[in-house]
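To fix ideas, we reproduce below a protein record of this kind.
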Amino acid sequence: MGLFFVCRPHRGFPENFGGCIMTTLELFIIAVGLSMDAFAVAICKGLSVKKLELKHMLIVGLYFGAFQGLMPLGGYFLGRQFESYITKFDHWIAFVLLGIIGANMIREALGGEAEECGCSFCVKAMVPMAVATSIDALAVGVTFGFMPDVNIWFAVAFIGVITFVLSAIGVKIGNVFGARFKAKAEFAGGVILVLMGLKILLEHLEIINF
């Protein structure tokens, strides 16, 4: 598409893309990397749906895609002076939110509770997940603010669209695998979310590096 802008190093960015210029292809790679947490959580959401409808995929895609796009935009306008505050607490927020959500899924699976689809996809259920999976994008947006030639509107829209598509696909994948083994799948999904939150925390504390 011919979009080029200066790339500077940042934690979470692939280093040295063969030069100091970032292309649309490289932005695509970043977008996919940022959307992986949302994709994994979307799979877990698909596990809780007995009869999957298009609206479920659209709801998850819109929430995750919107937050994944808005977070970099917010970070872009925050600027460098707040970067240390963001990176100091982002992993703890993600860890707590994903831990709570995952533990609740495990509790429901063990207790045989059936989660209503309406509640599962309501605002209070979706916002914490969307926030938890997009916090890293906030720090990425801060870095965009240091790039004088960045087209921020294209970048955030691009990231949002990629996340939307992958999240919608993730819901479908989760539903296919969870339809026959809902309780076991929901338990596994809860464990995955807890482990994902723990992984994010340990990586930011530099205890592990996957």
In short: Residues 1-21, 114-118 have pLDDT under 50 and may be disordered. The chain has one domain: 24-204. Strands lie at 4-6, 21-23.
